[in-house]
Amino acid sequence: MSLLSANTPEEDQRGYVFRAQSQEIKERGGNQSTGIDFFITQERVIFLDTQPMLSPSILDHLINNDRKLPPEYNLPHTYVEMQIAAFLFTVCHVVIVVQDWFTDLNLYR
Predict the structure, then answer these.
(1) What angle do CA 16, 21, 27 make, to 5 degrees?
(2) C-alpha–C-alpha distance, residues 81 and 77, integer Å
(3) Can you give the residue range of the structural domain that contains 33?
(4) What CA–CA distance (Å, rounded) separates 18 from 1?
């Protein structure tokens, strides 16, 4: 996303608009983005980066930190992701889906 929006491969990754996962976050099985992050280019193109869809890492983070689940987590693994997906399909002209494992047909439904 950073290379599409504003950065070049020669730049230091710490200065990227959308940061890649650090080694610590990868080892924890966590995610870099929480919610929706955005960046607007000089050409007025808006890039949106979201937390993982249909991934239990956020729920796992809440449970392991002994936090009480918020009321919007009635269906913990799908409700928030459905809201984000509905928002993206409402406001975006192009949605790029990236998967790091085998194709999950539930994501496309």
Answers:
(1) 160
(2) 8
(3) 2-108
(4) 6
40-43 contact pairs (CB < 8 A, 24+): 41/5, 41/6
Q: Given pLDDT bands bounded at 50, 70 and 90, which one contains residue 80?
A: confident
- Written in H, E and C, the secondary structure of the chain is CHHHHCCCCCCCHHHCCCCCCCHHHHHHCCCCCCCEEEEECCCCCEEEEECCCCCCHHHHHHHHCCCCCCHHHCCCCCHHHHHHHHHHHHHCCCCCCCCCCCCCHHHHC
The count of structural domains within the chain is 1
Across the strands, what pairs with 101?
none
Q: Give the pTM.
A: 0.59
The rounded distance, in Å, linking the Cα atoms of 12 and 82 is: 34
CA-based nearest residue to 32, from 3, 1, 65: 1
Confidence of residue 83 (pLDDT cuts 50, 70, 90): confident
